[in-house]
Design a protein that fits this description.
- By secondary structure, the protein is of the alpha+beta class.
- The protein folds into two domains: 28 residues; 92 residues, no CATH class.
- It is 33% helix and 29% strand.
- The chain has three helices and seven strands.
- It has a four-stranded antiparallel beta sheet, with helices on both faces. It has a three-stranded antiparallel beta sheet with strand order 5-6-7, covered by helices on one side.
- The radius of gyration is 18 Å and the shape is elongated.
- The chain starts with a helix and ends in a 6-residue tail after the last helix.
- The model has no long low-confidence stretch (mean pLDDT 90).
- Keywords: Membrane, Transmembrane, Transmembrane helix.
Length: 132
Amino acid sequence: MPLQILLPMVVAGIAGIVILLHLLGRSELARFDDEASARQAWLREYSDAPPTRVILSHDRHAALIETEYGSGVVWPMGMDTTARYLSGADIQRTKDGLRVDLPDFAAPRIRLRLDDDEADLWPTFMRKKGNG
């Protein structure tokens, strides 16, 4: 098949899949129903560090986790979630929340959308106990 035909077919096919997934609701970010669901998301990544405290963001798209080993954060990556400890993190305020730079090549930067009160309060908890 000539490249002039193949290339548009591939682009149209990928665009069609993206549109279909969006229409089916598969492009939404993961959302925590409650503290228990955020706790479970954390435990999927760190089963040996049960949370002692869970603080959900106002939109329920992120959660601040405190453990006896330090604090961490759980946030969405598409419809799934991931979690990281905050040790060595550089936390900076942005206009719509926080930017967390981590010394972790797999998740070097986390952008958390938080309201103003959360963006003021969360860094206090993020810097606790062994987090730098």
